[in-house]
Amino acid sequence: RRSSDLGDEETIKVLKSINHTETEIAVNAEREFMAVIEGGCKFPMGAYGKVQDEMLTLTVMAGDIGNGKYIRITDRSSVSEANVMAGKLADRLKADCMKENIILRT
User: Fold this and answer.
1) Which residues are 77's β-sheet partners?
2) Each residue of 21-30: pLDDT tens digit?
3) Is 56:22 a contact under the CB 8 Å cutoff?
4) What is the 3-class SS of the chain, one letter each residue?
5) Distance between CA 106 and CA 40 in Å, rounded?
6) CA atoms 85, 91, 97, 99: torsion sign
7) Which pLDDT tens digit goes with each residue over 56-65?
8) Global pTM?
9) Which of 8, 22, 28, 52 has the fewest CB atoms within 10 Å, i.e. the most exposed one?
10) Which residue in 13, 18, 58, 51 sits closest to 34, CA to CA?
């Protein structure tokens, strides 16, 4: 269980004091992409997010070891729409991979 689940206010206060908000936003968007695309260790793929000036730039990619093809997509959104954009990028990447015969499974 997480400390926040336990109601440990002192721990929560310390964690909030060291949290880097921009990194949290970027990582949450990367995780959203991974969840929607059902990523893990099944195929080569990745996501990299960076926040600057209240905008998130998210670059995602996936490939097929068998045929050597890969697709990379970059998009930007406001930080408030970061997770929505991440989900849309996952859907777009899946569709683009299908068009290019890139298999997103083992």
Assistant:
1) 56
2) 999 999 999 9
3) no
4) CCHHHHCCHHHHHHHHHHCCHHHHHHHHHHHHHHHHHCCCCCCCEEEEEEEECCEEEEEEEEECCCCCCEEEEEEEEEHHHHHHHHHHHHHHHHHHHHHCCCCCCC
5) 11
6) negative
7) 999 999 988 8
8) 0.82
9) 52
10) 58
| Angstrom distance (rounded) from CA 17 to CA 39 | 31
Token pair 């068009």 is found at 99
Q: Output the six-digit token pair for 58.
A: 């998210």
* Rg of the chain in Å (alpha carbons): 16
Residue type, 73: I
